[in-house]
Every structure is written in structure tokens, then in C-alpha cells.
Amino acid sequence: VPKDRIMKAVAANVAAGNSQVSLATEDMFIWGFNESQPFFFPNRNALLDLHQSIAEYPGVKHITLSHATIAPAVVDPALIKELSEILLDKSPIRMPNVSTHPEGRTLNPLIGLETGSVRMARKIMAGKSLPFEAEHWPSVVVNGLMILNRNNWIPVMTLIVGAPGE
User: Fold this and answer.
1) In whole angstroms, what is the distance from residue 84 CA to residue 73 CA?
2) Residue 72 in this model has a pLDDT that exceeds 80
């Protein structure tokens, strides 16, 4: 979806009295991907521009995150830091026991952990760790969580239980 359509939707929601924006997506990091490189490398400029535009839109008081993948945090930790600088002050979620934000705010995307097993990662989600190999899934998760947590992102993570061959 082009940025102008997203901003029209933001404007319509604000005009209707909604002051909270959440972009519904399967993966926030693939928005605005650059066709000259693989989709799993986030387009930092497009993502920063979009989120800055939403955060600055008059009447937007809160922004929440939807779905994301964890590998982009490892690929571009600086992007996570920059998104945090834009979004944290707009987050309605406060977790003062774990946040270093002055008001205890956190960002809480939904991230599919799915499995901790390399064997199962290879079988059911070989592309989820891209650009890293499925064999590195556990370290992608641990390193990604360290980067996210350091920037006050406390993801809600899902786990698949009972996959065939588990």
C-alpha cells in the first residue's frame, strides 16, 4: 500500500475521532521494500519516513505495532533504535518494570518464534530467519531479542506446538 493511501487512512481515522493508529501487517519490516534488493533487508528510509509521518500527524496520540519478524533487528539494529526514537513516546503500553523509557513505555509487536528447534525451523519455516540460515534460528532469536529489548521493544511471541514431526 502506498504511503499516500496509508496517510489518507490515518487522516480518516483521526477525523472520525480515533487517536490510536496500528498498521495491520504480516511484517512491518517489509513495507516499502526496495525491489533492487531482497525483501528481507528492511528499507530503513521508507520505514522511518512512514512512521515519522504517522507520529507527527495532528491528532495521533498513540501508535501500536502489529506483526513483525525478528531477523530485521539483527540485520539493522540502528533501524530499531531510530524507530524507537520515533514511536516510544506514542506507545500507550507501559511496562515500567522492564522499560528504560522515562515513562516506562514499550513497543510490543507480535513476533512468531514458532520453534526453538533447528530441525523444525528447517522443516516448517526455512525462510523465516533470512538472510540467515535456518541453522542459526536460535541465535537470531536471542540476538534479535537483545537488540529489541535494549530499545524497549518487548515482543509478544507465538509458539507452534504439535507441528507434524515435532
Assistant:
1) 12
2) yes
Q: What gap in Å lies between CA 103 and CA 93, rounded to an integer? A: 10
Number of H helices, E strands in the chain: 6, 5
Average pLDDT value for residue range 38-60: 94
Distance CA 69, CA 155 (A): 10
Hey, what's the torsion of the CAs at 135, 140, 143, 146, to 10 degrees? -140
Longest CA–CA span in the chain (Å) reads: 51
pLDDT beyond 90 at 40:
no
Residues 76-117 pLDDT 10s: 999 999 999 999 999 999 999 999 999 999 999 999 999 999
Contacts of residue 140, Cβ cutoff 8 Å, sequence gap at least 6: 70, 71, 74, 129, 132
The residue whose grid cell reads 531477523 is: 71
Which residues does 149 contact at the CB level (< 8 Å), separation at least 6? 98
